Amino acid sequence: MIDEFLRPFDFEFFRNGLMVATMAGALCGAIGVYVVLKGMSYIGHGLSHAIFGGFAASSLIGVNFFLGAGVWGIASALMINGVTRRRLLGSDAAIGVITTASFALGLALFAIFGTQGRSFDAALFGSILGVGTDDVIAIFIVCLLAGTLIFLRYRALLFTTFDPEVADVAGVNTARMDALLMVILAGSILATMQVLGVTLIAAALVIPAAIARMLTNSFARMLQFATGIGAFCGFVGMNLSYHLDIQSGPTVVLTAATLFAIVFIVTGATGRRRAAGITAPVPPSAARAPSAPVTARAD
Amino acid sequence: MSGSAERAQLLGLAAVTCGYASDAVLVDVDLAIREREFVGIVGPSGAGKTTVLRVIAGSLKPAHGTVTRRKGLRMAYVPQVETINWSFPVTVRECVLMARVKGRLLPWASRAEHAQVAEVLDKLDIGELAGRHIRELSGGQQQRVFIARALLGEPQLLLMDEPTSGVDVRLRHEVLHLLDDLNARGLAIVLTTHDLNGIAAHLPRVVCLNRSVIGDGAPTEVLTSDVLERTYGASMQVLEHGGMPVVVDSYQSARAAAPQSVRSHL
User: From 3.40.50.920, 1.10.3470.10, 3.20.20.70, 2.40.30.40, which CATH number describes the A20-202 domain?
Assistant: First the structure.
């Protein structure tokens, strides 16, 4: 039994995939807390599709996947952020236009020029085949950078997430915080894309955060729980992927969904009340009126 | 007001015009706030009360006019409780600590910060609630949490947006007493309200606002039928009760004065 469990660890591709899935799961879990609490789930979903366009383009012109898709993803993220903040379009419309256009471009590029390098299916549904040591190092760097940014800007990110308008009064550069969050989100999606595929990344962002929300009323603990849960789901899901011979994306997501169902049942009414809250929008008046107290020092 | 006029000015708005997009919400507003003042801004919905607070706080820049603040002025803002996302996973302690967004890079609070939070919560009689989620509190306790957060920054000027909006009489008195106490300790307070009789009539200074300042002074000077009609666009009567002005709209007063046979037609 134990031998059977340990057998895949003999393969380098599996060890690499496992490390990538675990690190990416932790990263998505952490950033997912902000995504869920800011009501940005659709952005996470859309951005993963936008990055697919960059994936296709980088595959076509033969540049490094992380470079091509990364630049594309960050540009898309900042574009969405800019359009939304300036209220040129509603956020849903902005995300819909920018990300689906980018995804469609990726599909068109694959249709015209065919697949080169990483496979089309792997990009859509995830695969650990072909995950090399370089990829592990790249994802480790992404995780390290994202983790450092979240750690050092924890207070400002929390304030901006809870109440951007009043955080602004308190002297927090909320525009910069929003941009930072979008860049970290793009990096997280990029790191996760190989293992989960663009179609399932939204689940990796949302489910660990939703589970964590059912378990606690504290932001700090929610962030810690979601990170741990994301890593756990990546690790378990990747093992299941090997043993059940299913693509890694579905197994990671199904592991998370199963854990969600268990926690949903175990925590009962308390968990349900908390989880219901995470999708509760801030009242419209909060969009214009400051909605939390702060202190500010005048110039 | 003479004593107030002698105090040092904390901030001033001079001919401020501003708004959202192309709509001017405030037009040529002049307003000065001095040390230890307790000012109520009243006016109908859409009069620009919250906008004035935002201009004072600095989150909204005026299109025209100037805002001058005393150098180093520490301000705190307490929003309407209705605008807060009560489902957000944040405990009372975490919420209050948001006021310390600057000055420390580490996510967790220092021992000194914990002590300061405990002190301010104790001062407001909610010290035992530090570990509770913000939704698990009564209305009065919720209001105190956000006041505690404001006080953590040791402000000289406290801005409060509709602190008694949607609260019952008991809570209104509770909040008012708390603010009175804070003002007596030297904190300048500016609040907005719809509640003319509940709060505005009790404050030493009332500003009637409807896009521009219609009246500014002591309640007995400002709460007159003429000023209120120009502020609210509706006829109002001001009665006196116990030395304080009591505002009733003309419809109510006419109905109360009319004989029973006529009331049904009013």
Answer: 1.10.3470.10
